[in-house]
Amino acid sequence: MVARFLPALLDGMLVTLELVAVAIVVGLILAIPLGIARASRHWYVRALPYIYVFFFRGTPLLLQLFLVYYGISQFEAVRESIFWHYLREPYWCALITMTLHTAAYIAEILRGAIQSVPGGEVEAARALGMSRRQALQYIILPRAVRIGLPAYGNEVILMLKASAVVYTITVMDIMGVVKGINSQTYQFELFYLVAGVIYLVITIAFTQLFKLVERWLKIEASQKR
Length: 225
Fold this sequence. Notes:
Elements: H1 6-38, H2 43-58, H3 61-71, H4 76-79, H5 84-87, H6 90-116, H7 119-127, H8 132-162, H9 174-185, H10 188-224
Helix pairs in contact: 1-2, 1-6, 1-9, 2-6, 3-6, 6-8, 7-8, 8-10, 9-10
């Protein structure tokens, strides 16, 4: 029974992996300036990133997904724009929502990591004549990456599990494929169990990958001392 639907399940797994991979990479790029701004001493620099982070961390991903997929289409200006070709597609709406959502969480991870960098290291960098930008680039951010990596790994796994809601807007991810299979076979328990196994396998793979990265960063750090 499962073998018959294996190609469809693999296609759904690839869609899920693609969504999560793009979201966490682009989300990280967006999160870097947000996290730096959130760690600023100036309230006016922190204000807008705080509002962004507060909204995306304070509301469910499913609600955000519906706002993007169903809400944006209500505006005529959006329907007539060059972006409508993408915004009318469930896949792109899911990708945009997941990226914006995870960027808020990664920004908070980065903020906490930046603020956890020992003050002595920053003072040593300034004593060597580094500007604030140089200290941030060469001392603070590399150190913050090592501090925040375990939390970032957890966020990737959480994003993987949260991605299961995208089937609600007809994206054929793992859960979307399983829903379609269940409507044909009525073998709900079997294929939900199969979906659970697929998510577990991906989670284990991500966990091991981040452990290897953490080990590599520790070796790199020890060699530089």
